[in-house]
Amino acid sequence: MFSLRNIDVDLIIKSFKTLEKEMRFSRGFVGIGVDDGGVTIVVCARDLASLRSLVNGVVKSLYLIFEIINLGA
Description:
It is built from two helices and three strands. The chain is an alpha+beta fold. Helices cover 53% and strands 26% of the residues. It has helices at 9-22, 48-72; strands spanning 2-4, 28-35, 38-45.
């Protein structure tokens, strides 16, 4: 589970709503939710290899999103 605070909630939600479809397969999925002004990203998988794959995908996506935000600053 990733819990993000003090960020552009709309940007993260829009980005991950698109990525949710790509990160859903028979052995795992990624879900996103909003709570108390922050974003929670939940990764669920049936096995360790699938979990590793999904977590890597989430981390890479967050890295790219934050780098794009920094380019605009």
